[in-house]
Amino acid sequence: MPAVPGDVRYPRRFEIFRLEALGDDPFLTDAEARDQYEQGRRLAVTDAGSPPTWYLDVLPGRQRFTITFYSPHKTPVREVVWEPVDGRLLRRRALELFYPEGDPKRRVPYSQLLTVDQHWYADGVARIVRSSPIDEDVFAEIVAGEQDRLDVPEFGEWSALIAASTPADMSRFDVDAIDAAEDVARAAIAVGKPLADTARWSLPASVSTVLDTVTALTAFEPTPSLVPIIERDAAKILPVFVQGASPRQSGLDAREERRRVDELSSGLAGAFEYASGRPIPFPLDQRGDGPLAEYAASLRSANARSAQWWVLNETGVVVVRSGDEDAGDLALAVHLVPARWVSGRSGTPTGRPSADLRWSRADLRE
User: Fold this and answer.
1) Cis omega before residue 51 (within 30°)?
2) What local confidence, expressed as pLDDT, does residue 1 receive?
3) Which of 79, 92, 207 is nearest to 139 (CA)?
4) Is residue 325 exposed (0-12), middle (13-18) or buried (19+ Cβ within 10 Å)?
5) What is the pLDDT of residues 139-175, one digit of tens each?
6) Least confident residue range of 148-157, 323-332, 357-366
7) Which of 343, 353, 207, 336 is nearest to 286 (CA)?
8) Do residues 123 and 180 touch, judged by C-beta distance below 8 A?
9) What's the rounded Cα separation, in Å, for the pair 346 and 317?
10) From CA 197, how far away is CA 261, in angstroms rounded?
11) What residues form DSSP beta bridges with 338?
């Protein structure tokens, strides 16, 4: 059990792999740290252990409080995110990490681990995903009911925040971690009721599974069964989310709907960036001739609002957001297209009509 703050330290710079404060004068004094916090600047806080068992990262303006907990060997085991909503902190995320092959005594890519990722939203919805490299994912969107909230801490009063975030005592290493992860996911799902909206759809898979599907498709290999694939001309569409109804119809909050898509999009971008480098924004307003302009026209016809792309195994991989949360047609998908559609390296027109990249919940039923 991590120590609740009593004797804490305030690193000027904190190295998250070695869990060490850096520099010749590595720690702020309490007075310097208080001044930094009260002025709304970024602040790092750790317990006084060596290595520390937890690390708190406070973003500028106190807009986010992220606490990461570690094993005695510096391995992350839990990350919890709190953000201010209506004057109090709402627990936004808890990421539980499990290591079936034992404690690696270091950070490893999350795609290699068992994880249980829980997200909470101010409109009462929670999303739970148990991701596994050895089994199919477990997914649920539920109406969670009561939510965990805390007062924004005054400087030095970290105890309530740390105590509310501290990991439960469970098996996180070796073979017992498999059952522990399953138990955590099932218990989290059982807290609420399924989100009952027949028009709404979310991909019941993790971003790691989406990456595995994309990698398999670009290498012409068998794909995971959880991810549907819609074919349109030379493009393949992997749906990720369909809002299905306006907030007035669903009773959900438009801002939280946008946030859910923001998080899904960010997770996909992180997975593709790990595989293929930084994303490149796609110019939706591209006009003229050639594959780039033709693809841009197809995206505009599909009501796309933003797109970013990578090239993986000579295939364009594009994360596409479309629609509007207030109108109820917000959607997210991954496109697999010929690389020339995004890279612009071939300016020769194909001579074919633009591909119809529109899709809906009905395509998933088919």
Assistant:
1) yes
2) 44
3) 207
4) buried
5) 999 998 778 899 999 999 999 999 999 999 999 999 9
6) 357-366
7) 343
8) no
9) 17
10) 17
11) 315
CB 137 within 8 A of CB 153: no
**Distance (Å, rounded) from C-alpha 148 to C-alpha 314?**
46
Angle, helices 207-218/254-276, rounded to nearest 10 degrees = 50
pLDDT, tens digit, for every residue of 200-236? 899 999 999 999 999 999 998 988 888 999 999 899 9
Are the CB atoms for 89 and 151 separated by under 8 Å?
A: yes
Rounded to the nearest 5°, which phi and psi values hold at 217?
-65, -40
For tokens 């996180």, name the residue. Answer: 172
Mapped to the 3 state alphabet, what secondary structure does the chain carry? Answer: CCCCCCCEECECCEECCCCEECCCCCECCHHHHHHHHHCCCCEEEEECCCCCCEEEEECHHHCCEEEEEECCCCCEEEEEEEEEECCEEEEEEEEEEEECCCCCCCCCCHHHCEEEEEEECCCCEEEEEEECCCCCCEEEEEECCCCCEEECCCCCCCHHHHHHHCCCCCCCECCHHHHHHHHHHHHHHHCCEECCCCCCEECCCCHHHHHHHHHHHHCCCCCCCCCCCEEECCEEEEEEEECCCCHHHHCCCHHHHHHHHHHHHHHHHHHHHHHHCCCEECCCCCCCCCHHHHHHHHHHHCCEEEEEEEEECCEEEEEEEECCCCCCCCEEEEEEEECHHHHCCCCCCCCCCCCCCCCCHHHHHC
Tens digit of each residue's pLDDT (9 = 90 or more) over 70-102 = 999 999 999 999 999 999 999 999 999 999 999
How many Å is the Cα radius of gyration of the chain?
Answer: 22
Residue 205 in contact with residue 211, Cβ under 8 Å? no
* Residue 315 near residue 219 (C-beta atoms within 8 A): no
Q: Could you give the percent of the chain with pLDDT greater than 90?
A: 78
Indicate the pLDDT class of residue 349, thresholds 50, 70 and 90: low
Average model confidence (pLDDT) for the chain?
91
